[in-house]
Write a structure and sequence with these properties.
eight-stranded mixed beta sheet, globular, 5 helices, Nucleoside Triphosphate Pyrophosphohydrolase
Amino acid sequence: MPIPPFDPRQVPVDAIDAHLPVVESTELQADALIRRFARQLSWQAELPGDLSAASSKVLRQAAVLVPIVVGANPAILLTQRTTHMSSHAGQIAFPGGRIDPQDRDAADAAQREAWEEVGLERRFITVLGSLPVYATGSGYSVTPVVALVQGGFSLRPNSQEVAEVFEVPLSHFTNPANHRWHTMDWEQTRRHWLSMPYLESRPESAPVERFVWGVTAGILRNFYRFLLT
């Protein structure tokens, strides 16, 4: 999705999906997630991404890691991109990037990018599987690779690409009461997009809003639907 020339936080909320079911907390634990991916059920992603961009471009192949940090309260590991990036600058994102010729597959590329961007070592990662590809307005066909991340890792963010690394409880994204729909006109097309803002509490300072939206929110919405099937 193209980056709008304004703060997306200022775009009015059209609807909130509080009427949809919440994924039970037991289904977010590592063993349940392993079972869900093993079931190989047929399903279709709700959000394929920016198809208007896909129809007019040759999309480049990319992969992102959807890292679920294992624990009593599983969390998604996310990054805040630096403001000078050529695409999606300043946005909250998954570790990831273009699939290079030397990568064996999307999972290999996602893990390589996680190492290069934030220093997450492969030995802590267990890949569960992939979600359907997601088209971006910046011209990529992105394969989201879902993985468990065991505790004990240490991170070394690449300051050229990553301004910050943080965690958000997975339960925040699997509760549709946190899914907010927005509408905007961009390049003569009406676009609908999601935001899933999270207010991170800090013991010695004011809370910080993590404004998850666009591609990242779209992929998380598809993951929510996947867990419901």
